Amino acid sequence: MKFQKAHIPRERLRSVRRGCPRGAALAAVALVAGQGPVTAQQAATLNGPPVQVRPYVSEPGVPQITINPGTPSPFPSDTGEAGTGGGTGGSGNVGTSDALNTMMGTTWGNTAVANAESVGVNPSALAATCVLESGCQNVGGSGTVAGAFQMTASTYTAMINAAVAQNPSLAGQIVPGLAGQMDPATESIAASEYLLQGAQSLENNGVSSPTVLDVRGYYNFGPQGGQQLAQASDSEPISDVLNMYTPSQLAANGITAGETVGQWRSSVAAKIGNAAGQSVSS
Amino acid sequence: MMRFGALLLASGWVLTAVVHAQGYTPVRPVKTLSGWQCMSLASVYGADGTNAPPVSVYDGPGPGAPRVGTGAGVIIVPYPIQPVNGRVEMLWPNGRKVWIQADELAPWHSLSNSNAVCHPTLLSNGRYGFTTSG
Q1: Burial class (CB within 10 angstroms; exposed 0-12, middle 13-18, buried 19+) of B39
Q2: Does the pTM exceed 0.80?
């Protein structure tokens, strides 16, 4: 629900305060607030992520705070940041994100969110994938790679089939065949399934509550590489962490000499913001 | 007093927002684990090793012990290894001890850096992982 508040210009308030006693000033404020183009609270249909507070008046003595849409609330009752690896199972730590705002800005964003939830994936994790892969644009790629989630034809086919097998009700809303790869809403189902399998792979290997960043490693480097990245500290050279790659294989995969795990994580997190530390499972 | 409270709240809010904006909490080594060593699945050093499938791990060394998951990545096992019924104990990243077939394992080494040595390590995110030197 969207609320619109009456905006009383600050300069107008000051002139009222200077000329009147406090009680009269309050009465004047009430009078002013009751006149003019005041909009009463109006119900509106929610379309996109919830409206968030944007402070526009600074308070003397209080530092300026800028809150961007998508910034999680710091309060404990809201969604939080990355969980740690201890403990077993469980989910949580899901919610809004900058990446989700980007995906929700597309015509297919709402459908993709519903698809992620039906598969059991945090919508922010799905959104982070399209941000990283294509900027959430429905584009072609090299070879058989295509679509907003840039999946290969073989992976897309395997994942869409797996998703429909687990949830047959999805069959009625997909574009059949490989044409679905270029339909972002349909490809979002396959991408969600792929994320789910990545998270499950890491969980099966003893990595509790894998984050979006953890599963990104699985996406880029497969089950072995994803597991190794999830077990590494930031200071490690990727060439040592991915110990089964030869120097030429590392170069072919875009790993530069001396690049560390922390640099790789930072570059991914810089693109997807606060989604990086969230859980993949919803 | 109220203004001080507001300032405190605002400062906390800003700090929290900065952490969230970064997207992840940096991971650093906390403690090297003595009495443990790094190994890998032998299959990762073979043809198509980067796509080597994980192997099964079990709740115990006995043949009837249930399968509880898989082993992949860096396999942390005791030093020296002490197989029981052909299986060795393994430390999962979440701290759980499971058992894996000893003949699935090979000493850890890096194909891109022959001097690298792997050390089992407790990380700041609570996971049992590794660091390297050399």
Answers
A1: buried
A2: no
